[in-house]
Specification:
single chain; 262 residues; alpha/beta; Purple Acid Phosphatase, chain A, domain 2; 5-stranded mixed sheet; globular
């Protein structure tokens, strides 16, 4: 069976004044040029804290950013997963339009199950059902914050207090919540899972073991907070199967082979 290489990242929080994603972007381009799959695992954009005070320029920025990233790496399959900060209906409509425009792009509102691996935004820890998750995310579907709030949050971020707070939150809390959600969402298929890639908590984690699963978190590109890109392998047939799910937006570009399994 053919095996390919993929990368994942989450919580870029583009559109905000506190995002440091521009520092990670060159490495993201290198990773995309070297892989067959790139999963952008939620909160890639932050419409609630956008520096634009109207939705239309925020969506235009998101469209231009995605178009540039995806079109520069036609050999790589991109899958966007939404999080609490980028789950607004207008952005989902944009993702649908872009996935129709670019054959190497797809998107998923909740999760991507890739064989024994699952990719999802960690805000599912806030709920155990799809309905509860939708209600939680709806709280973030409000107009952008006022200018004074941006200034206050920017100064708060530069104080490095957010990093301290994120580092103090036990990873077990994230793992427990995500596990409960996946058990309810996947049913018997949950027993197939070995690795979970998530975000939301802004704390980088690699190979954290809980309940028989390994958890991985790429952190966040926010000033003063740590971030990284995680690499994984997958079977080409698994990706083809995942993208054929009814909830998955279509994309059928074959992935480059990097190795052969035994």
């Amino acid at each position: 069976m053919h095996i390919a290489k993929g990368h994942t990242v989450s919580d870029l929080h583009l559109l905000t004044s506190r995002s440091s994603a521009h520092r990670l972007l060159p490495r993201m381009h290198c990773a995309a040029a070297d892989a067959g799959l790139f999963v952008l695992n939620g909160d890639i954009f932050d419409f609630r804290w956008s520096v634009f005070h109207r939705l239309s320029p925020s969506l235009e920025y998101a469209e231009d950013w995605i178009s540039d990233f995806v079109s520069r790496h036609p050999q790589c399959q991109f899958v966007f997963i939404t999080g609490n900060h980028d789950s607004i209906p207008a952005y989902k409509d944009l993702l649908t339009e872009l996935s129709q425009r670019y054959p190497n792009m797809a998107w998923e509102p909740h999760y991507l199950k890739l064989g024994r691996k699952v990719f999802l935004h960690g805000d599912v820890r806030e709920s155990h059902t799809a309905e509860e998750l939708a209600a939680y995310r709806a709280r973030w579907h409000k107009p952008p914050q006022k200018r004074w709030a941006h200034v206050a949050y920017f100064l708060f971020t530069w104080s490095r207090i957010p990093r301290l707070l994120h580092e103090l939150v036990p990873t077990q809390r994230l793992a427990t919540g995500v596990t409960k959600y996946l058990q309810a969402e996947l049913g018997p298929a949950f027993d197939e899972i070995t690795d979970v890639y998530c975000g939301h908590t802004h704390r980088p984690v690699t190979d954290y073991r809980w309940g028989g699963l390994r958890f991985h978190n790429t952190g966040a590109t926010i000033h003063g907070v740590r971030s990284c890109i995680h690499t994984f392998t997958y079977h080409l047939a698994e990706l083809e199967h995942a993208l054929q799910r009814p909830s998955q937006r279509p994309s059928r570009r074959p992935e480059p082979v990097i190795a052969l399994a035994e």
